[in-house]
Amino acid sequence: MTSTEASSSQEKAATLRALHVPGDPLVLPNAWDAASARMVEAAGFPVVATSSFATARILGYDDGEAAPVEDVLAAAARIVRAVSLPVTVDVERGYGLAPAELVERFAATGSVGLNLEDSDPPTGKMIDAAEQADFLAAVRSAAVSAGVDLVINARTDSFLRPVGSPEEQLAASIDRGARYVAAGADCVYPIGAGDPNSIRALVEGVPGAVNVGYGRGKLSFTELAALGVARVSFGPTLQQHLYDKFASGLLAAVASDETPFVL
User: Fold this and answer.
1) In terms of Cα–Cα distance, which of 127, 105, 203 is closest to 116?
2) What is 3-255's CATH topology?
């Protein structure tokens, strides 16, 4: 990476971090390739984010780190080249890479933010909270040592892989979120949190920015802002919506020779 590229990456990371404002959330309609990323940019959004599920799908693999890491990183690099915005990438739990190698290879794509989750992708088993905090701290330390500024979004799956009562899931999410912020995360993503009272408790209990999923519009952006959310993401929802339309509408019309357009 040249000094100019390094300076650009630092500026993009600073921009991405500054956009995490509680009460004025960064909205991320997740992309999955260069074309969809360009659509996000053209629509006026300030950041491009990816979804691991959506990316794996276009690469021909299932989610859960089934895609080769080389393919995932190459896909991220293509998106970075296609847009002028900061790019943040969902890298599941790092595809088994040691923190230093993960940072080195990830930074080479030009991406400036990454999601890291705390359950084992192939099995769904939750990683011990202290172990995950140590992993995040090692990623942050490796980034600092390499002179790379990365915006880390630490996903916690305590709601997604429920163990115990809803109250225990919430308490575990808050505890993990606090540990991850202390370890160097910029934002915490308690995926699956959708109840307004739970979201408010997370915002109040986690000493950092909180990311929630859009939840198919159960709560509006205004309502999420009022709860103090700093980041809203869509995951693979938009891709799935488009593919559903493609399968049930366009393909069905073509098959029946009732296309509403001229090919």
Assistant:
1) 127
2) TIM Barrel (3.20.20)
